[in-house]
Each structure stands twice: as C-alpha cells, then as structure tokens.
Design goal:
This protein has 315 residues and is of the alpha/beta class. It is built from 13 helices and ten strands.
C-alpha cells in the first residue's frame, strides 16, 4: 500500500514534514499544501519556498496547485518541473468558501466543461504528470456523474477522492457509496482520503475497498503521528512513544522559531500543533487549554516542559 500525508494549509508545510519524517514511519510521500498561480508573473523562490528542494528532507514531496487559470497552471507546472518535480497535483477539493467563491478548489466542480478545458491545455503543454485531489461535488454527489467522464478522458497519475461535498466541509459522514461508484467508474488509479483516524478506521475501509492500495491521511496523522506506521505494522513499543513525541515537538518548535518572526506567530503555530496532538493524550483537553492561554514563549515552553516531565499518558 502507498500512504500519503494530506496537504493541510498552515500545518503540513516543510518544517512539519521534515520533523515528522525524522521521527515517524509509514508515509511514502507527502503532498504539500497548495500554491496559488500568479497571473502574468514569474514564480520567484519566495513564492515556492515550501517546495524548494533544499528546504525538504525525508519524504518524497508532491506539489499541489490551486487555480482556475490554465495559463498560470502551465507556467507554474514548468517552474515546478525545473525544481525537479515530475508530478503535480491539482486541488479540486478545497472546501473553504473564500476559495470556492472564486471558483477554485471545490468551487470549480460545478463547471466540468471548464475543468475539461484546463486539463486539455495543461496536459498538452506540460511534461509533468498530473494527479487530482477532489471532493465528490461542490453541492451534491450527483455532480460526479458529469465530472468522472471528464477525469476519464485524461491519463492521471491518480484521482484522490474525499467522499464529501465541498459545502459539507468536514462535517457529516463520508459518502462511501459514492466513493464506491467513483472507484468502479474511474479509468485512473483511485486513492481514498478522509476520516482515517485509527487503525480500525483503516481496516474497515480496506475490508470494503479491497482493490484500493493508495490512501491519504491528514488530521488523523496529525493527532497520532504513529498511525501510518501502525497501519503498516511498523509500530514501536508504547513505552518509547512519549520520548519520541517530545523530541519531535522540540525539533518542530526550533524549526518554527527560526522561520517565524515574533513570539505571537510562534505561539499561534504551536497552538495549532497541539490542537491535534492533544487528542492522543489522556486528559489532553487540559494541556490544550493551558497552552491556549499562553501568551509568551517562555510561558509556553514552561507549560510544555512541565507537561512532559509529569509523564502524561499517550493513548
């Protein structure tokens, strides 16, 4: 099986990917959070900092592009190819209204003809392989009835399906019946993405979709970074996990401290980290509440040190 870390804007940028790859097993690749196209401009290193080869160690990285502009996509794909990337992902799944209202991400799904035109232009004028990460529609799963024939017209590296609509965001149950339909109809390799939070979740999905060998994990892996390894039978002794998590945290904290200006930015970044990680600790809500109340870096580090020194229970 092939496991990919999902792209989560604000969470899984290069510092997180590098630190996680140094301490945890299981993932075969990581998809970077999306880069937007820029009309009529070149793509300077500052715009692609997260994707520069020198800033990435560990897992193989797949760049993701968020756009509704074929010309910009072609130019950006060329720049990414120059950086050494042979596969690029097109984000047709972002559910957030700010993007969707601009006809980007899942906001483009109600317009399969436009998607068709963009695919035709991009694949005819670039050398990179293209994958797509999609929702099952913006407003309704029936949108897949017109989208799948479009996707099938092109040789995609893979079609990554999150079986929710865009307007669902992350609420409600994944529509596994529609995913099954996508799997049956797709001429391209299909990967599953969504709500894999435990090994039990994964096994339930494998039992139902035995032909799928590509899986994407996001929030479940942020909460439990050992999860990909456990899925592959590469889990480590429970007694060692707290020390690994602590060293992982310290490396991540140092990496963010080097790149972020001001204690408030660093604090906000680490609070986001604990929003997920706290879920894997017994009484995790208590440490999350304490961390969210910190305002200064010294206070934050004292709270975290005391927490780890107290021998918390990793669940």
């Amino acid at each position: 099986m092939f496991l990919t870390l999902a792209p989560l804007k604000g969470f899984t940028e290069a510092p997180y990917r590098n630190a996680a790859a140094a301490f945890f097993t299981g993932f075969d690749a990581a998809m970077a959070p999306f880069v937007v196209t820029i009309q009529g401009r070149k793509y300077p290193n500052s715009h692609l900092k997260d994707l520069l080869p020198e800033n990435n160690q560990g897992w193989s990285v797949i760049p993701q592009v968020l756009t509704n502009d074929a010309a910009g996509f072609i130019k950006l794909a060329g720049r990414l190819s120059d950086l050494g990337y042979d596969t690029v992902n097109w984000n047709l799944g972002c559910p957030f209204p700010r993007m969707a209202k601009k006809n980007r991400g899942s906001g483009l799904l109600p317009d399969p003809e436009r998607i068709d035109r963009i695919l035709d232009q991009v694949l005819s004028k670039t050398s990179v392989r293209l994958s797509i990460k999609t929702r099952i529609g913006r407003f309704a799963p029936e949108e897949m009835d017109t989208l799948m024939p479009v996707f099938n017209r092109y040789p995609l590296a893979e079609l990554i399906v999150h079986p929710r609509t865009g307007i669902q965001m992350y609420s409600g149950e994944p529509d596994l019946a529609t995913f099954a339909n996508c799997l049956e109809r797709s001429k391209n390799p299909v990967a599953y993405n969504g709500d894999i939070n435990t090994v039990a979740d994964f096994r339930t999905l494998v039992d139902r979709f035995s032909s799928v060998d590509r899986w994407m994990l996001g929030r479940g892996a942020l909460a439990d970074p050992f999860l990909p390894g456990k899925i592959k039978g590469l889990d480590i002794p429970h007694a060692d996990k707290l020390d690994i998590i602590r060293r992982f945290h310290d490396r991540l904290f140092s990496a963010y401290a080097e790149m972020l200006s001001g204690p408030s930015h660093l604090g906000d970044k680490m609070k986001g980290f604990w929003l997920y990680l706290s879920r894997s600790f017994e009484d995790g809500r208590k440490i999350l509440k304490k961390i969210q109340k910190t305002r200064k870096t010294d206070h934050y580090t004292d709270v975290v040190k005391h927490f780890f020194d107290s021998g918390p229970t990793w669940i």
